[in-house]
């Protein structure tokens, strides 16, 4: 072997393979490779086989730098010389290669889809393979990571959130899923179909007894189904409804009032130049995050479009609910919650009264938030991740693929080695 090909072999770094030749063809590295095996036994009888020519397969490997790599593997064929053996010829195989991809190329596709949130289609393009081949790589390398029971060890605070997997379209209703989150460690534990008591109960009953006994807090979407599931499956856990979920309800009420008032005063749904429609996003944003200019816009729009102060009333009620959650103690929170009810009854629109009723029904869970010392703000972050992934994949329709991708992105620890900083280290080389 000449020096050039032994350097190339070292760079390739694939166990058992040597590079015999290389060439840059159409912007790709073409590497002619073969195995070192020059002596093999027959897989059936073990008698030493003799060479019987070669066959060539082409395999895609991970890129070198930005340059795609194609391995031209001259596979050895062997012939068994034992006349009594049924096996006549056989071709060598390697664990390093699977189908049209190297093992590490398949692992890289899985990592890029999981850790870097690339789409399967983008990775298929990067490696010059079909979507199904890339997806199979994600599945084969990703499933063991996702199924690793250690992912679920030591969960003490469980978040249970609904999210939209797929918005309604011409052929289907909105499809919901439920995600289960480790609130303390900010890890997605699992995703199950629907948003029902049954789906959460099934998931919890598939966990170990140890798991169920060690969850202390469960923070949920205020949702009767989830509550029922947790009361029965995790009787020892404190169930809380956190800021994010309560405020989500309040924002929905503000939105409902705004839409109704728009319809009643204008006779149609919101349009771009309608004053209330123009401030719809500002109304659901936190008050302290509005600039002076935005606040002035809100006040002006309410002056023009909210003749009976219904939207403004709902807005104030929502902000009061946010104050409850900013409270530093249970006592302060209780006082502020009373003020919230009073304000809601003063506003007295049907949407706001319904909100007050819902909060009243969930009051113990809203207040228990202050005794557990845990916020579910992190599952809010998790929701945003889900949103991003969903948009990226243009709505994944296959639930198992959807679950796998979410878990690979937010539920698995990737041990990608950080690249060493280029400065501050003296080269150890060799001229
Ligand atoms: Zn044989």
Can you describe this structure in just a few lines?
This protein is an alpha/beta fold and 431 residues long.
Strand portion, in percent? 15-25%
Number of DSSP-assigned strands: 12
- Mean pLDDT across residues: 88
Secondary structure category? alpha/beta
Bound molecules: zinc ion
How many DSSP helices? 17
Low-pLDDT segments:
none
Q: Gap between N and C termini, in Å?
A: 22 Å
Q: What is the overall shape?
A: elongated
Helix and strand pattern: HEEEEEEEHHHEEEHHEHEHHHHHHHHHH
What is the share of helical residues? 40-55%
Please describe the biggest sheet, giving its number of strands, its sense, and whether it closes into a barrel. Answer: 5 strands, mixed
Gyration radius, to the nearest Å? 30 Å
């Amino acid at each position: 072997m000449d020096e050039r090909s032994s350097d190339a072999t070292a760079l390739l770094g694939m166990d058992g393979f040597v590079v015999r030749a290389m060439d840059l063809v159409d912007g790709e590295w073409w590497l002619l490779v073969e195995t070192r095996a020059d002596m093999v036994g027959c897989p059936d009888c073990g008698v030493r086989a003799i060479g019987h020519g070669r066959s060539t397969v082409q395999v895609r490997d991970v890129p070198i730098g930005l340059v795609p790599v194609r391995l031209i593997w001259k596979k050895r064929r062997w012939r068994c010389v034992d006349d009594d053996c049924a096996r006549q010829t056989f071709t060598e195989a390697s664990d390093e290669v699977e189908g049209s991809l190297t093992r590490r190329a398949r692992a890289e596709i899985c990592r890029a889809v999981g850790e870097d949130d690339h789409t399967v289609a983008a990775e298929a393009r990067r490696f010059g393979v079909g979507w199904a081949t890339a997806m199979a790589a994600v599945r084969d390398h990703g499933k063991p990571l996702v199924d690793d029971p250690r992912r679920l060890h030591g969960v003490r605070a469980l978040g249970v959130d609904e999210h939209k997997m797929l918005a309604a379209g011409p052929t289907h209703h909105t499809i919901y899923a439920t995600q289960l989150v480790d609130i303390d460690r900010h890890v997605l534990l699992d995703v199950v179909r629907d948003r029902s008591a049954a789906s959460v109960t099934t998931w919890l009953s598939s966990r170990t007894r140890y798991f169920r006994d060690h969850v202390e807090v469960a923070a949920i979407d205020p949702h009767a189904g989830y509550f029922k599931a947790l009361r029965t499956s995790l009787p020892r856990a404190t169930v809380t409804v956190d800021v994010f979920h309560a405020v989500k309800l309040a924002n929905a009420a503000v939105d409902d009032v705004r839409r109704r008032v728009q319809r009643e005063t204008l006779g149609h749904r919101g349009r771009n130049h309608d004053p209330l429609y123009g401030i719809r996003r500002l109304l659901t944003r936190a008050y302290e995050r509005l600039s002076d200019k935005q606040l002035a816009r809100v006040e002006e729009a309410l002056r023009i479009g909210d003749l009976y102060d219904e939207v403004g009333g709902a807005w104030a009620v929502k902000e009061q609910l946010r104050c409850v959650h900013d409270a530093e103690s249970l006592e302060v929170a209780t006082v502020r919650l009373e003020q919230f009810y009073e304000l809601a009854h003063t506003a007295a629109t049907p949407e706001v009264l319904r909100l007050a009723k819902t909060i009243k029904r969930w009051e113990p869970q809203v207040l228990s938030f202050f005794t557990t010392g845990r916020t579910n703000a992190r599952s809010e972050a998790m929701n945003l991740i889900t949103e991003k992934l969903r948009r990226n994949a243009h709505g994944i329709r296959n639930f198992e693929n959807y679950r796998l991708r979410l878990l690979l992105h937010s539920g698995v620890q990737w041990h990608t080695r950080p690249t060493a900083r280029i400065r501050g280290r003296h080269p150890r080389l060799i001229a």
